[in-house]
Structures are given as structure tokens and as C-alpha cells.
Amino acid sequence: MTALDSIYQVRNGRRTKRISSYDRSGGNKDSVAIPAGETAEIANIGGAGVIRHIWMTINCADRMIRRNAVLRMYWDGESEPSVESPIGDFFGQGWGENYNFASLPLAAAPHKGQALNCYFPMPFGDGAVITLTNESEEPIESFYYYIDYEEHDAMPEDAGRFHAQWRRELTEADSADGENEGLELVPQQPNQSDAGNYVFADIRGKGHLVGINYYVDNPSPMWYGEGDDMWMIDGEPWPGSLHGTGTEDFFNTAWCPKEIYMHPYFGCARVNGETGFLGRTHVYRFLLEDPVYFEKSLRASIEHGHNNALTLDLVTVAYWYQLEPHQPFPELPDKEGRQNKPIINLHDIHYWRHEYRKAFGGGTTLWGNEWRSKREEP
To answer: Pick from 230, 166, 233, 240: which is nearest to 206 by CA?
Structure first.
């Protein structure tokens, strides 16, 4: 059954409404300003209903405003947010950048991803509040938005509330084997635990996970994607109910992709333009047809390289529905803790070669592949 299958049905007890930034004077200044350091209440809705669509766009001198402005959503009078994420990452825009992104529940539309859209339905039984906090040192000169929602007479007791959480970790390379992914510097060891994995969801309660945006910044040209996804449902031990075979496999692609591809449910919205897999890549997977259900808890994680061998800057936003109350999120890193790692540039790569020459005795005609014959020595 699709949305179009029931679109002809005339329903009772629903009223369509919108909160927007339109000019209340009737003029054409259809935006609000958010001074540096301040929080704006974008929506405050009473009663029961469902938010059906959110559209937003920002004008700010800060080029990192999409990482420096934080979006929060609260349902039913709760004091802890059910949604907490930098605004760009939530809508599928990593690293404070803007680029086109198309999926079924989220999209960043032309011009160059400037229009942020969300179609995840967000039910509430007794009120909804949406805020945006400008943690930049620059004012948001103009912030435009639509919050399209339905008023309902009541909300069913089994209606899960929408949640989204931003996480980040600079992962550690294996201290014994080093960054050893596919090059077989030393034989890689098996991983029979999820203890060292990057955790993108750690949830308590009853619900189902429906998606993830996954932003990886790789300081090496080495392939980053041999990590298996692992899902421990309701406290079960490893290997869990769902165990994957590789990062690109979980994201429904194959064989180390490096090209833009956007399906409604999965894809690569941004790929690095550097040597190998050096730099920034954004992949996504929405489990709309195959959500991961849990009764008591969910620990969802992924290896950062096989046996967690790689140093990566990993950022994720996980999306799920659950019955309240939810476990409060860990404190969101401050603005400084959300900034990008420096871009590895050609000078850095040349210094790698300089160190390579030193390691091979400072030869004057070293080409760069001498390590191959040295590895084959008895």
C-alpha cells in the first residue's frame, strides 16, 4: 500500500494547518532573524496532531551555519528533546556544506541544496515545540520556514514519537595492527564483539529504527567501508539478530562505490573528489520498508574498518520512532566540538612521501612502491 492508495479517502477529525515565517504585516519580509547566541521558537502547537512536512532555508554569513545551528523538537510537554541535531546534518547535509540530496523522507533541494525538506510524519498527543539555536558568532539574517501539520481530535496510544540524534566520534586505529584495511600489512584478526564499534543508536524503550545519515571523513586514501553493521536487540549478545557484511552492503551498494547515486531509500549523496577514498563521503539508508523493531532496547553499531582498524571522523544522525518516555540524549558537543577536521591537502600528502623516503634510508630515486618488495622478503 502506498500513500496514493488512500489519498482519495475523505477523513473525519483532521484539519490542515501551517506555521510559517510569513510577514505578519502583509509585506514581503517573509523571514525571521535569529541573533548570534539566541534560540528561536519556530513552532508551538497545542493539542494532538501530526507534523507532515517541514521546509527551511537559511541566510547567514557563517559558512558553517548548518553545523553551528541546532534543531530541537519536543513532544507532549517533555523537557528533554526527542530530536537534537545540527540543522544541516539532520536534513542530509554534512560538514556544514550544501549540496543536492534526494530521498523519500528527507531532501535538500536546488539551488545547491539550499532548501531543506523533511517528510517524516511526527505525531504528538499534547503539544509540539520546535526550536532553532544559533550558536554561531554571526546572526542568521533571514530564516524562512514552513511547518505543515494536521490537527487531530486525539492520537492513538500506540503512536510512536519521532526521534533523531546526532553523534560523532574520531575513531581509534587498532593499536597492535595499525590502520590495516585490505593492504594486509599484517594478518587481520577476527572481531567477535561489537565493543569497539562506532555506535550510532543506543536506545531504551519500545519502537523501531527507520534510518541513518552517515558522514565519514577519511584521513587516508584507504577504503573505509569494510565495517560490518551489528544490531543487538533487547540486550541480546553478539552476534545479534542482524549482522552485516560491510559498510557499503548495509547502505545497499557494492564493491567500494565512489559515485553520486540517490535512491528514495539509500544512496551516496556526496563522494570525495580526492585520491582513493581520502576525504568526505555521505551515504544514507532509510529502513522504511524494513524497520528494525525493538521491545526494550537497541544498540546499533558499525565497525570502522574490519576489526575497527581505521581512524575515521564519523558523524551520524539516526532516526527512529518509540513510545515515550525516551532515554535522555548525552550532552550535545558544543560548537567547537562539532567543527570539521582539517582537509588533508597535497602538502600533507607530500610530507607522507617525505617520511616514506626517510623510512627507506633517504634514497634519491625512491618511487613509492618499494614497500611491496620489502614485504615479500623472507
So the answer is: 233
In angstroms, rounded to a whole number, what is the distance separating the alpha carbons of residues 356 and 358? 5
CB 271 within 8 A of CB 277: no
Q: Report whether 93 contacts 113 (CB < 8 A).
A: yes
Q: Point out the residues of the chain with pLDDT beneath 70.
A: 1-3, 183-184, 375-378
Give dist(CA 263, CA 135) in Å, integer.
33
Same fold, 9-152 and 161-181+194-329: yes
Question: What pLDDT is attached to residue 1?
Answer: 59
Q: With contact defined as beta carbons under 8 Å apart, do 228 and 243 qualify?
A: yes
Task: Residues 9-152: name the CATH superfamily.
Answer: Protein of unknown function DUF2961 (2.60.120.1390)
Who's near 343: CB < 8 A, 6+ residues apart? Answer: 279
Nearest Cα neighbor of 46 from 16, 7, 76 is 76
- The answer to whether residues 326 and 82 touch, using CB atoms and an 8 Å cutoff, is yes
Peptide bond into 328 cis (omega under 30): no
DSSP state of 178: B
- Which of the listed CATH numbers 2.60.120.1390, 3.90.580.10, 3.10.20.740, 3.30.420.40 matches domain 161-181+194-329? 2.60.120.1390
R_g of the chain, CA atoms, integer Å: 23
Q: C-alpha angle with apex 51: 139 to 322, nearest 5 degrees? A: 105
Look at residue 4 in the predicted model and tell me its pLDDT: 75
| Burial (0-12, 13-18, 19+ Cβ within 10 Å), 255 | exposed
Q: How far is CA 231 from CA 167, 200, 293, 299, 300, in A?
A: 17, 10, 11, 6, 5
96 contacts: CB under 8 Å, gap ≥ 6? 63, 64, 65, 66, 67, 68, 88, 340
How far is residue 33's CA from residue 141's CA, in Å, rounded to a whole number? Answer: 5
